[in-house]
Amino acid sequence: MRVSVIGCGHLGIPHAAAMAEIGHEVIGVDLDQAKIDRLNAGECPIYEDGLPELLTTHTATGRLRFTTSLEEAAEFADVHFLAVGTPIDADGRSYDTGQVFGAARALAPHLSRPTVIIGKSTVTVGTSRDLGALLARLSPAGEDVEVVWNPEFLREGHAIDDTLRPDRIVVGVPSARAEAAVRQVYAPLLANGIPLFVTDPATAELIKGAANAYLGMKISFINGVADMCTAAGADVQQLTEAIGLDPRIGRGGLNAGPGYGGGCLPKDVRAFTASARTLGATEAATMLRAAEEVNESRPTAALRLIEQTLGRPVDGVRITVWGASFKAGTDDVRESPALAIAALMHQRGATVTVHDPHAVPTALRRHPELDYAEALDNSVQDAQLIVLATEWPHFREADPKALAPLVAAPVLVDLRNLIDADAWRMAGWTVRQLGRPAQE
């Protein structure tokens, strides 16, 4: 099948590569000519596990190519995926769908035959209805252009695996013809037993928001409990293992840490909270806002733990932060808890050096006031404290004995409960982990 993917970012590039992997002929579209040139050369402008290999393979065969021309994409494809960005709006509470409607307006004049537009971007409920009306009005094909909403549930760092082996596919369809097109696109995945949930478009739009809002609440819940464990001298790791055995709760997502970040979860929780208020569900909005407040408090909570470990304020202290991306497996630093903590310590007078195995270039663009080190060994030189803030295996595998002679003081605060604390302590380090009892 011939498909286009409009928007080549953290969502669009993995989706285009995955569609080529399952056998489709794919054309990706983006306005950035430099990015298009890199993609056509098989070069990946973002870091995502497994993506460079797929990109190289399928651009080489010609099954996957990229262009800046929507006219070319309209002529080529019968199905168009919309994967453009929907950042949070100026009000800080809703989605800016300007890129979605802008792409549709630019594509519409070239749609002269029946086609299906499949929205992947996360949007406010009602967007697909409004987009369908716009395309029917502006397209030569009129009402033969239909809009389906097919929200993505990708975890950054796992985008390829989550596209090729998702736990479910959700589609909000306006007609049987549109549903048939979706089934044809995803036929190789459905043949592997992936469940397809077919709903009306409004339900599909709400499903994405509800899923991320629940995950945000679950993360905020366990982080709030981690604060309680710190105050009580209890162990959040043992607590989560115990309550996670309850099938009504589940262990997934119950990992105490410095908070959730990235380009999706924070904005999705904000927008879903705003939608709850708009729809008059004030109690739901209050509950969701509480989860946001817990997440917003995490940099301050981390700073409190760091200063307790130091026994003094961070002013004048040389600190290394391990991690810049908001999670392992990606170079995305949008709303990164690691960088928020690093920036807060910098504001409080610390000298902060950040190391990340993949995200140093993207972090440097957002926080040029911080110092950066490309190599792990260099990052800890003369440090008085190390803060582990992103769960890269690279940090779990670090050798505490080899690192000890390089630092000014062998002290580590593990905000991800990632390392073997006992092994580090045996190597002479003072270790403090989030939500776990302090040990000498």
Automatic annotation (TrEMBL):
<feature type="domain" description="UDP-glucose/GDP-mannose dehydrogenase C-terminal">
    <location>
        <begin position="320"/>
        <end position="421"/>
    </location>
</feature>
<dbReference type="InterPro" id="IPR036220">
    <property type="entry name" value="UDP-Glc/GDP-Man_DH_C_sf"/>
</dbReference>
<dbReference type="InterPro" id="IPR036291">
    <property type="entry name" value="NAD(P)-bd_dom_sf"/>
</dbReference>
<dbReference type="InterPro" id="IPR008927">
    <property type="entry name" value="6-PGluconate_DH-like_C_sf"/>
</dbReference>
<protein>
    <recommendedName>
        <fullName>UDP-glucose 6-dehydrogenase</fullName>
        <ecNumber>1.1.1.22</ecNumber>
    </recommendedName>
</protein>
<dbReference type="Pfam" id="PF03721">
    <property type="entry name" value="UDPG_MGDP_dh_N"/>
</dbReference>
<dbReference type="InterPro" id="IPR017476">
    <property type="entry name" value="UDP-Glc/GDP-Man"/>
</dbReference>
<comment type="pathway">
    <text>Nucleotide-sugar biosynthesis; UDP-alpha-D-glucuronate biosynthesis; UDP-alpha-D-glucuronate from UDP-alpha-D-glucose: step 1/1.</text>
</comment>
<comment type="similarity">
    <text>Belongs to the UDP-glucose/GDP-mannose dehydrogenase family.</text>
</comment>
<dbReference type="InterPro" id="IPR014027">
    <property type="entry name" value="UDP-Glc/GDP-Man_DH_C"/>
</dbReference>
<dbReference type="InterPro" id="IPR001732">
    <property type="entry name" value="UDP-Glc/GDP-Man_DH_N"/>
</dbReference>
<keyword id="KW-0560">Oxidoreductase</keyword>
<keyword id="KW-0520">NAD</keyword>
<dbReference type="Pfam" id="PF00984">
    <property type="entry name" value="UDPG_MGDP_dh"/>
</dbReference>
<dbReference type="Pfam" id="PF03720">
    <property type="entry name" value="UDPG_MGDP_dh_C"/>
</dbReference>
<dbReference type="GO" id="GO:0016491">
    <property type="term" value="F:oxidoreductase activity"/>
</dbReference>
<dbReference type="InterPro" id="IPR028357">
    <property type="entry name" value="UDPglc_DH_bac"/>
</dbReference>
<dbReference type="InterPro" id="IPR014026">
    <property type="entry name" value="UDP-Glc/GDP-Man_DH_dimer"/>
</dbReference>
